[in-house]
Amino acid sequence: MIDIGANLTHEDFARDLPAVLARAVAVGVQRIVVTGASRAGSAGALALAREHPGMLFATAGVHPHHAADYDDATDAELRELARDPLVVAVGETGLDYHRDLSPRDVQQQVFERQLQIAVDLGLPLFLHQREAHADFLALLKRYRGRVPNVVVHCFTDSAEALRDYLALDCHIGITGWICDERRGVHLRELVREIPANRLMLETDAPYLLPRTLRPMPKHRRNEPMYLREVCAQVARDRGEPAEVTAANSTAAAMAFFGIA
Question: 128 pairs with which residues across the strands?
Fold first, then answer.
């Protein structure tokens, strides 16, 4: 399997990353895309990928929470990072109106600048959207035809939003949110609508520990080994064997990112 989004540069992994990676491999998670969500985090993601060639890959981008920090130097550094063969997508970028940690107009400007990086370098997009669907979709539509692939990562939105993204030939990333009996029940119906070749799985570690895990880890830190739990839940909801879900999502991810 391939975990298409794990925040392995997070401080929670500073002490035991080799053990985290070993546990992932032991359960069949052979490759992980390390999310870059800030200028420093993107450089860190690439550094990790260089330390673990063949297993780790990276994205390079600035999350909307950090949009206020984006400047010309950030843009130039992201472009430089994104030229490395181990960087397989531009992002995590997009819009987040749930927390509004950066002004909305600034988020939109920074999102558009990163959309242009993907166009200029011919890279896929790794996108974030929360409570900003209309503005997000409007901006994405302007660029969709000029980038090879798009994934709306950690999808948690409505049926309408899902259908809008599928109509734009986007891929959909599903996390342990689908395992949450409080917030993720609607995803258990919607995941059936995602074509097998556009469904990808991710942990978003260390966040979103699947609530269906038994026993529940005391530390409550998510990590790539728990991608199996996400896969199992998605398989149940799609009415197919977990092996089929795993094989299809892996094939989709390999094609999306150009990972051999």
Answer: 94
> What per-residue string of b and e applies to 216-230 under the rule 16 or more CB within 10 Å gives b?
eeeeebbbbbbbbbb
SS3 195: coil
Terminal Cα-to-Cα distance of the chain (whole angstroms) = 13
Tell me the CA distances in angstroms from 42 to 74, 78, 200, 249, one per residue in order: 10, 8, 21, 25
DSSP string covering 118-160: HHHHT--EEEEEES-HHHHHHHHHHHGGGSS-EEE-S----HH
Distance CA 253, CA 234 (A): 16
CATH of 2-257, one of 3.50.50.60, 3.30.70.640, 2.30.110.10, 3.20.20.140: 3.20.20.140
Question: Encoding tokens for residue 52?
Answer: 């673990």
One-letter amino acid for residue 117 of the chain: I
Residues near 144 by beta carbon (within 8 Å), at least 6 away in sequence: 150, 168, 169, 170
pTM over the 0.85 mark: yes
Please say whether the beta carbons of 234 and 253 come within 8 A: no
Mean pLDDT rounded to a whole number for the chain: 97
Tokens of 39: 């200028």
Domain ranges of the chain: 2-257
Split at pLDDT 50, 70, 90, the class of 44 is very high
**Across residues 198-211, what is the average pLDDT?**
98
